[in-house]
TrEMBL record:
<keyword id="KW-0943">RNA-mediated gene silencing</keyword>
<feature type="region of interest" description="Disordered">
    <location>
        <begin position="1"/>
        <end position="53"/>
    </location>
</feature>
<protein>
    <submittedName>
        <fullName>Putative XH domain family protein</fullName>
    </submittedName>
</protein>
<feature type="domain" description="Zinc finger-XS">
    <location>
        <begin position="64"/>
        <end position="107"/>
    </location>
</feature>
<dbReference type="Pfam" id="PF03470">
    <property type="entry name" value="zf-XS"/>
</dbReference>
<feature type="compositionally biased region" description="Acidic residues">
    <location>
        <begin position="24"/>
        <end position="44"/>
    </location>
</feature>
<dbReference type="InterPro" id="IPR005380">
    <property type="entry name" value="XS_domain"/>
</dbReference>
<dbReference type="InterPro" id="IPR045177">
    <property type="entry name" value="FDM1-5/IDN2"/>
</dbReference>
<dbReference type="Pfam" id="PF03468">
    <property type="entry name" value="XS"/>
</dbReference>
<feature type="region of interest" description="Disordered">
    <location>
        <begin position="131"/>
        <end position="151"/>
    </location>
</feature>
<keyword id="KW-0175">Coiled coil</keyword>
<feature type="coiled-coil region">
    <location>
        <begin position="314"/>
        <end position="355"/>
    </location>
</feature>
<dbReference type="GO" id="GO:0080188">
    <property type="term" value="P:gene silencing by siRNA-directed DNA methylation"/>
</dbReference>
<dbReference type="InterPro" id="IPR005381">
    <property type="entry name" value="Znf-XS_domain"/>
</dbReference>
<feature type="domain" description="XS">
    <location>
        <begin position="171"/>
        <end position="282"/>
    </location>
</feature>
<dbReference type="InterPro" id="IPR038588">
    <property type="entry name" value="XS_domain_sf"/>
</dbReference>
<feature type="compositionally biased region" description="Acidic residues">
    <location>
        <begin position="1"/>
        <end position="17"/>
    </location>
</feature>
Amino acid sequence: MDLDLDDYVDPYEEAEAEAAAAEDGSDDPDEDDSDAESDYEEESFGLLKSGKHRVRNPDGTFRCPFCPGKKKQGYKIKDLLQHADGIGVSSKHRRHGRERANHRAFARFVRTEPSFAEDLVGITGIQGAIKPTPANRDGSTNGDGKAKANVDTAGSSSVAAKVGLPREVERFSWPWACVLAAGAGFNTEDFAGRVAMFSSVEVVPLFVDEVEVAETFAVVRFTNDWSGFSDALTLENHFSINKLGKKEFEMRDNGIGSVEGDGGEGEVKVYGWVARAEDYDSPSVVGRFLRKHTVLKTIDEVSKTELEKSGEMVAILASKIEEKNRHLQDLETKKNATELSISRLEEDNRKLHEAYNEGLVKMLCGFSKRMKT
């Protein structure tokens, strides 16, 4: 007998869904619970550590215990982390505080739980992941046998990663911009060629003064909408993956040592990252340019600005529609008056024709009588 697995409901998942529904039912869905997010996060992290939530599926894939009603529950470990991180840093206008806190706790649990260490091996860009402790020849582990935290240093971390700020609190230069930097001897006019593959508005070379001749800079400007922000992050990720991000540039600038990256021998390396508050407040030529042409805003502030612009646009369009409606009413009034005037003229014309015809008939009748007599 064939079984229709599409209608099969995992009893464990069904129980979790009922528990989650009961838990969420106690909260008003319209209530802003963002102030209690830290408490929610610690509570959820404790439950995950206690093993009360199932994360691994029998087929080796993973599931999100905080999305029990989601149809797709067969994530790869990297996709699972992207799912948890994405909801964890989402705007409070789109997600409730408990939901964001639950997913941040889940992302932290996956990164720090030793049982996931083997699954995270080989995945780049995982910040704060546990690295499995290599075994000695006798089969024992080094030290006390516990896995040690290994913060990924392959890619360039953002300011948010350094200070632990979520992206919605992190301040960016807006309209969105990226900073390009290179060592002495690099022609600033060549910066545009290094980022030609990205969708930018313009690349502005910055000509430095005598104090700053050791480095050359440029600012890549993007559109001020969300597609521009996505393009800026794409540029930053490109340089970060190639170990040419802000962290590597600062290490080089501080004399700690240059990290190997793209570019052949003898070629001046170009570094790139998204412009944030640290760049905006810098006394360098980059900071002066950013303070002149951009402002600092968080993601929430940009969202609010976009909503205000949308509201203003709606008000303008509503005013124009009202004006058009008034004009249409005026035209309709004139049309009705014209139709009435034409109707009266037609009636007068009809009466004139009738009177003329009656007079003509009488005249012909009189003429006929005179002819007979």
